[in-house]
Amino acid sequence: MNLQEAVRQVNEASNSELGFLRDRTKGDVRNLIGREIIFEDVAVVTSKFYNNENVLFTVRGDNVHYFRLCSGPVVEAVKKLMEGLANDGKDWDAVAVTISEVRSRQGRRYYMLTARILEDADEQIAL
Fold first, then answer.
1. What pTM, to 2 d.p., does this model score?
2. Which of 5, 19, 45, 66 could be bridged to 24 by S-S, CB 3.0 to 4.6 A?
């Protein structure tokens, strides 16, 4: 394998998890607040610049944007949902989520996530 092939393989491997972001622009999460949405693709990644994790995701019906959230409660909620979906053999189309903005007692804003199992998915889980 020559250097050019090695570089191509390394780049493909590092972009494979986030390939769903390709050809999309970053959207404004504030446009999603209070709306029930369905994730298409989701990745939890560690920030290169800060010591925290981020959730990168796309939303069903929006083929132009991707979104990023670094709110700790959202990251933890997404991880729990990922685990539950994996355990039940389901994909993101089984769950609808709603992002809300809340304030801490100190007045700082952060995001929270609530989820709902979609009826079709709930029936399939019961079988």
1. 0.78
2. 66
